[in-house]
Amino acid sequence: MADQRKRRRQQATRRRTRLCKEGAYQLVIMAFLLIAALVRQINMLLLIFSGLTIPMLWNLYFVRASLRDLRFRRRGPEWCTAGDRIVIDVEATNQRKRRTSWVVVATDHLRLVNPDESQRLLAAKPIEVSTVFARIRPGETVRESYEGRLMQRGEYRLGPLIISTRFPLGLFKRSYRVKAPQTLIAHPRPGALTRQWQERMQRSYHGGVSISQRQGSMEAEFYGLREYRSGDSKNWIHWKTTARRGEPIVRQFEQQRNLDVTVVLDLWIPAEPSLRDLERVEIAVSFAATVIGNQAKRGLGHLVVSTHRHEPKLLRGFASQALLREAMTDLALARCSREDHLPMLMRQALGQAGTMQGEIVVVSTRANDLKDSDRFSNIANAANRHDWRGRVNYVDCSRSDLAQLFELPDMEEHAGEISASALVPDSAFVTFATRQMTPKQVEEVQR
Predict the structure, then answer these.
(1) Checking phi first, is residue 225 left (phi over 0); if not, alpha (psi -120 to 50) or beta?
(2) How far lies 255's CA from each of 212, 214, 252, 296, in Å?
(3) CB-CB neighbours of 247 under 10 Å
(4) Residues 252-311: pLDDT tens digits?
(5) How far apart are CA 129 and CA 106, in angstroms?
(6) Residue 167 in 3-state DSSP?
(7) Is 216 helix (H, G, I), strand (E, B) or coil?
């Protein structure tokens, strides 16, 4: 019995009923009529006062009864890519056997969790979006959706849900809070690696000596055509050329090597960073995401990713889609810092890489001298079997010629929705909206 009373008190603190602006206006009129009726002894004014009291009490009862035994649930993705459209569903279940609920509004909240310095300028306040359930019949489950875009990488927190109704007269508003916490990770938006970068990686891997392209037994990167030979797969046939020549012509592919790649991300910022410095942080993250995604798509060799959050984060595994998702989550949560973490990141990454012979890609927001023996003295102990400096492919995101290696994500498809640059927008969000009604329509319906 005591537990039931305690539960009721907790529910009472979560639910609240307040007088709306329209109800306050009517209350003022009623007070004026009552005073005038008592002072002037006019019975007609008392009748008008009584007539206005009935809808007030009826609206108060209706809004309190409409939200009883309603259960709400949110369904949304666990992760997305920054800039892509996402859809979040809200389900409402009427557990009553009788009485239909009308025009119930579920207002959701979304905010960026623990933004670092490159993100704090973009998402100071959470956003709100309202979803309207026009009618929820007894025993029925209704689903409504809202959609939008998250323009900034990072961890987002959804909730709480504020459930409210003002139907039918809009004189009183009944509301309560549903915690319904949910986390959504926005992965960095990858760009595109240029042909010059691919050639640079090939020259680096082969020690700067150009090698001729060779025909491989496995399909890889297409580079030429030749006549059909016994044993060739039918999937290799180039049908347009075959039709033009009148004889089977097949495609030739480069022989692929089992490449291991180590990616080290250095997000350093100066003591007083400018907007350009913060933009370089996002460019470096996007570049690293593109390199990792390219390696995972090929599914060749092992992949080691070294980033920094509140502490160094190291990830290693065979290049695959599962590892790609985990790496993208680490990049989404990577934080910039004024401290010099590059030597520590390099030491841990090379120590974890062990005997890996592949490339080392260092993506940084500044220029670094890797030949500084004092600064990188401890790395030799972690990778004493190999000359790590000869395998490093260094990318300085502060250089003006970065465009020769990397193309920024294309955001032209969102023209009219986004009025900002691709990686450092004016806002971390593009306004979310319901699929059925706009906020103005919601307010009009409630009235």
Answers:
(1) beta
(2) 10, 6, 9, 18
(3) 9
(4) 765 445 578 899 999 999 998 888 888 899 999 999 999 999 888 877 678 889 998 888
(5) 8
(6) coil
(7) coil
pTM of the model: 0.76
Render pLDDT for 411-443 as a digit per residue (tens, 0 to 9): 444 433 322 344 445 455 555 665 544 445 445
Q: Mention every residue, 6+ apart, whose C-beta is less than 8 A from residue 368.
A: 266, 342, 362, 394, 396
Rounded Cα distance between 365 and 348, Å, is 20
Query: Which domains are present in the chain?
Result: 1-189+411-447 (2.60.40.10), 192-210+257-407 (3.40.50), 222-253 (no CATH)
Q: Which two three-digit tokens encode residue 439? A: 């906020």
CB–CB of 317/325 below 8 Å? no
Q: Burial of 389 by CB count in 10 Å (0-12 exposed, 13-18 middle, 19+ buried)?
A: middle
Taking Cα atoms as reference points, which of 357, 356, 347, 351 lies closest to residue 205? 357
- Backbone torsions φ then ψ of 330, nearest 5 degrees: -65, -40
Strand partners, 394: 362
Residues 6+ apart with CB under 8 A from 39: none
> Smallest Cα–Cα separation from 129: which of 438, 356, 422, 360?
438
Q: Which two tokens stand for residue 286?
A: 């996007």
- Write out the DSSP string of 238-270: -HHHHHHHSS-EEEEEBPP----EEEEEE-B--
- Those residues with Cβ within 8 angstroms of residue 390's Cβ, 6 or more apart along the chain or in another chain: none
- Short-list 297, 281, 439, CA closest to 363: 281
Distance CA 47, CA 98 (A): 34
Task: Write the CB contacts of 245 (distance below 8 Å, at least 6 apart in sequence).
Answer: none
Contact partners, residue 401, CB within 8 Å, separation at least 6: none
Rounded to the nearest 10 degrees, the angle between the axes of helix 275-298 and helix 321-332 is 170
Q: And the tokens for 52?
A: 């206005």
Query: What are φ and ψ of residue 352, in 5° steps?
Result: -75, -35
Rg (CA), the chain: 31
Asked if residues 36 and 52 have their Cβ atoms less than 8 Å apart, the reply is: no
